[in-house]
Design a protein that fits this description.
By secondary structure, this protein is mainly β. It is built from four helices and 26 strands. Strands 1, 2, 3, 4, 19, 20, 21, 22 and 23 form a nine-stranded antiparallel β-sheet that branches. Strand 7 and strand 8 form a beta hairpin. The longest helix has 11 residues. It is globular, with a radius of gyration of 22 Å.
Length: about 400
């Protein structure tokens, strides 16, 4: 995986960005208002604006909903939206309302179904790493276990969009670094609160996981999501540094605070079988950034489409769909959240290559693709409104419950 450094260019100021939008023509971004009028923006809060625009794409016109977010505004911040557990889903509007957000968009791709493993519960958990308020929630599943379109060359499930404690947004990679110390020795930790564990590994599940079954973690392989579930599994529960329970198959139900459930498959299962109730076990884990030395306040997965003002090579330019993306400019101080409309007239959407171009036109130096299709949602509390509601038309006719998103807060 290439460490992406020097991500931030000078960018454009937000004033230049807003003025430029009014003069764009041809196949570039144009205002959804009458052709002779400048784009109309609605101020949601100091530093936060909402607008709508049309984009000409290969599959026809796409209608974009955009939030511009100025992180230099003292009262503005962005955080991870999530339902309180990794293996849980809720609509963007519900998550934003519950957390007191002004606005938000959907986030990472996720384990949406298990038709390939009949009888196995879909977890709803996201693909990539996730942090909330500086706390690590989960690691990334193996590349071959992800849901969503094919990754662009050179990217992986460890790619993240995040905001550091310095209030600057970045694209980065977050790799799980962890271990399990047992009386027999030190084992590498293969996963943290993940719906898929690497073959032969041991993964840790904490109270952040939720109530959902852990069986899915032992299904598929590192290169084939549809491969059968492993028949060689084992699980131990660790509390206060000691094994308190063991089972031959992964379980389900809530995990108590200060408790870790270790799930092993193949070689990992064989190592866990060496532990007896009462054995001393110490579990350690963290996420290590490839580029930034500034700790992340929040981060979530997806994949980059634009870096340093240039589209990544090999982006798909044939498959059009409804999309969600986030862009960065001005050294990480400005964000552009984009969600396409899923109404029938615009459902053709954009290709990933077209998304990269649209984000660059908006002023983004770096941009990151999030989950799309029926998941694409932008929700906000508009001036005078008492609640957060969806601003776009979700392509499925109603908001889809999703595992996480990007929340915009003011105050």
């Amino acid at each position: 995986m290439t460490h992406r450094q020097g991500r931030f260019g000078a960018g454009r100021s937000v004033l230049t960005f807003l003025a430029a939008l009014g003069t764009l023509a041809g196949p570039a971004l144009v205002g959804a208002a009458p052709a002779s009028a400048a784009p109309q923006w609605t101020r949601l809060a100091t530093g936060v604006r909402y607008g709508q625009f049309d984009i000409s794409g290969a599959a026809g016109p796409a209608h974009a909903h955009v939030l511009s977010v100025d992180l230099r505004a003292p009262r503005v911040r962005v955080e991870l939206l999530y339902p309180g557990a990794v293996a849980a889903r809720a609509t963007v509007s519900r998550q934003a309302t519950a957390q007191g957000a002004l606005a938000g968009v959907n986030g990472d791709f996720f384990n949406i179904s298990e038709t390939q493993h009949p009888g196995v519960e879909a977890t709803g958990a996201s693909v990539g790493p996730a942090l909330a308020h500086g706390r690590v929630l989960k690691g990334a599943v193996p590349d071959g276990q992800r849901f969503g379109p094919a990754l662009p060359p050179g990217t992986s499930t460890e790619d993240v969009f995040g905001v550091g404690t310095d209030r600057r947004a970045r694209l980065d990679d977050l790799t799980l670094d962890g271990s399990v110390r047992t009386p027999q020795g030190l084992l590498p930790l293969g996963g943290l609160n993940q719906y898929a564990l690497p073959v032969g590994s041991v993964g840790a599940f904490t109270s952040d996981w939720g109530n959902v079954s852990r069986v899915r973690a032992t299904c598929g392989t590192d290169t084939d999501r549809a491969a059968p579930c492993s028949t060689d599994t084992y699980e131990v529960t660790v509390r206060a540094g000691h094994v308190v329970a063991a089972a031959g198959t992964p379980g389900h139900g809530p995990i108590a605070a200060n408790t870790t459930v270790l799930v092993g498959r193949e070689a990992g299962a064989r190592e866990l079988r060496k532990l007896a109730v009462g054995s001393t076990v110490k579990v350690r884990h963290r996420l290590v950034a490839a580029s930034s030395r500034v700790p992340y306040r929040f981060a979530l997965g997806g994949y980059p489409v634009l870096e340093g003002g240039r589209a990544l090579p090999g982006l798909d330019d044939t498959t059009s769909a409804v999309r969600t993306a986030v862009g960065i400019s001005d050294g990480g101080r400005m964000l552009y959240l984009l969600a396409l409309d899923g109404a029938p007239d615009f459902r053709g959407g954009l290709t990933i290559a077209e998304v990269a171009r649209a984000m660059r036109t908006l002023g983004s130096v770096d941009a990151f693709s999030l989950d799309g299709g029926g998941s694409t949602t932008m929700a906000a509390r508009l001036p005078g409104a008492s609640s957060v509601t969806a601003l776009n038309h979700p392509s499925g006719g109603a908001e889809r419950p999703v595992p996480n998103g990007i929340g915009v807060f003011s105050g």
